[in-house]
Specification:
Helicase, Ruva Protein, domain 3, 22% strand, N-terminal domain of MutM-like DNA repair proteins, 2 domains, five-stranded mixed sheet, elongated, four-stranded antiparallel sheet, alpha+beta
């Protein structure tokens, strides 16, 4: 699933292709990808619009139009937004946005679990977007803010990291990586962390997300950026996807468990 670093890289790579471009036409190949409004109204509301900005909130990509409407993409497991020249549709194309310069923006999705929305000015029917917590980058997740989030939660610390209403944009990959880097057992109660452990975890989370962005995202199977290129961050992971392999810190075999309903890889020796 594209997490914050992947969506941020999609934003950065799409922006030069989209800013100032008009959307000449929209062709929808699978209506159920459009969650709001109807597919017909979605097409009519976008066609003729001009793109003013491309931004991100958590795992949501936001495309602002001059008409004050907002195109929202939530890519979930296998969705992607890819800019290309005119030509044949890429594999698993679900929506095509024809741009005023003759190029295209494609929404592709293998498992068709993603979602596109078109919101009017001041309209927000997306509960998950409305309720997002602070971003772990850009200075929003301060030490005091993070400590308060942990102190109020008795759930497993990994579950709190995955809770989008607590912290925006973190998924399974970067939660496991942050916990490993901070030396914290994923199943520990968040409220049991000492102030020092909470700060170490906050810094680790910011660090692994920054690394993911710098390495253009993590690509195991489906993730590609807005230029259709894969990321490199999978080559720098401490624990995720390395079940049973030696810990890079101590050499002990990495263990696996389900924590907060998600598969979790960790070091039973280094993580306390």
């Amino acid at each position: 699933m594209p997490e914050l670093p992947e969506v941020e890289n999609i934003r950065r790579t799409l922006r030069p292709h989209l800013l100032g471009r008009g959307i000449a036409d929209v062709q929808i190949y699978l209506d159920r990808i459009i969650k709001w409004p109807s597919a017909k109204d979605f097409s009519a509301g976008i066609a003729g619009g001009v793109i003013n900005d491309v931004s991100r909130r958590g795992k949501y990509l936001l495309v602002s139009l001059a008409s004050q409407k907002l195109l929202v993409a939530h890519m979930r497991l296998t969705g992607a937004l890819i800019a290309s020249g005119p030509g044949d549709a890429p594999p698993y194309a679900r929506v095509r946005f024809s741009l005023s310069d003759g190029n295209c923006l494609w929404y592709t999705d293998v498992r068709t679990l993603g979602a596109l929305y078109l919101l009017g000015a001041g309209e927000n029917v997306i509960k998950g977007l409305r309720e997002l917590g602070p971003e772990p980058i850009d200075g929003q997740l301060t030490a005091a803010c993070f400590a308060q989030i942990m102190k109020k939660r008795s759930a497993a610390v990994k579950g709190v990291l995955l809770d989008q209403s607590a912290i925006a944009g973190v998924g399974n990959i970067y939660a496991d990586e942050a916990l490993a880097l901070a030396g914290v057992m994923p199943s520990r109660k968040a409220s049991d962390l000492s102030p020092e452990e909470a700060e170490r975890l906050r810094e680790a989370l910011i660090g692994v997300i920054g690394q993911g962005i710098a390495n253009r995202g993590t690509s195991f199977r489906d993730y590609k950026d807005g230029d259709g290129k894969k990321g490199d961050n999978q080559n720098y992971l401490l624990v995720y996807g390395r079940r049973g392999q030696p810990c890079l810190k101590c050499g002990a075999p990495l263990a696996y468990a389900r924590v907060a309903g998600r598969g979790t890889t960790y070091c039973p020796r280094c993580q306390k």
